[in-house]
């Protein structure tokens, strides 16, 4: 449960984070484990044929793609739990 709380906090932070033009890779910014979680979420929901779901990309690029992919799943009966965090964040 503590791990899920950390993930929720991390994802919420990433959704509101606006990085500068000189962005670090997500792996450099968050570390390998946390960036890989975002990459996996991104791959899972992205409708793109070549999504930016790579830990070498900036975290905000990855989270933007997660938000975009989750938007397509908004009305699904059982969307991924992290998409629910996306909807919650957008309504604030």
Topology:
Layout: H1 2-16, H2 26-30, H3 32-45, H4 59-72, H5 81-91
Helix pairs in contact: 1-5, 3-4, 4-5
Mean model confidence by pLDDT: 81
Largest sheet: none
Shape: globular
Q: What is the helical fraction, as a range of percent?
A: 55-70%
* Helix and strand pattern: HHHHH
Radius of gyration: 12 Å
What number of domains?
A: 1
Q: How many individual helices?
A: 5
Number of beta-strand segments: 0
Distance linking N and C termini: 24 Å
Class based on secondary structure composition and strand pairing: mainly alpha
Share in β-strands: under 5%
Unreliable parts: none
Signal peptide: 1-21
Protein name: Cysteine rich repeat-containing protein
Keywords: Signal
Comma- or semicolon-separated keywords:
5 helices; 0% strand; 92 residues
Q: What would a concise description of this structure say?
A:
Keywords: Signal. This protein is mainly alpha-helical.
Q: Your description of this structure?
A:
With 92 residues, this protein is mainly α. The chain has one domain. 64% of the residues lie in helices and 0% in strands. It has five helices and no strands. The protein has helices at 2-16, 26-30, 32-45, 59-72, 81-91. The longest helix is centred in the N-terminal third of the chain and has 15 residues, at 2-16. It comes from Methylophilus rhizosphaerae. Residues 1-21 form the signal peptide.
């Amino acid at each position: 449960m503590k791990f899920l709380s950390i993930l929720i906090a991390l994802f919420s932070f990433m959704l509101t984070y606006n990085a500068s033009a000189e962005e670090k890779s997500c792996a450099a910014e968050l570390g390998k484990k946390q960036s890989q979680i975002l990459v996996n979420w991104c791959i899972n929901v992205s409708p793109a044929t070549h999504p930016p779901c790579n830990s070498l990309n900036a975290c905000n690029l990855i989270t933007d793609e997660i938000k975009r992919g989750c938007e397509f799943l908004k009305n699904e009966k059982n969307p991924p739990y992290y998409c629910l965090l996306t909807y919650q964040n957008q309504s604030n």
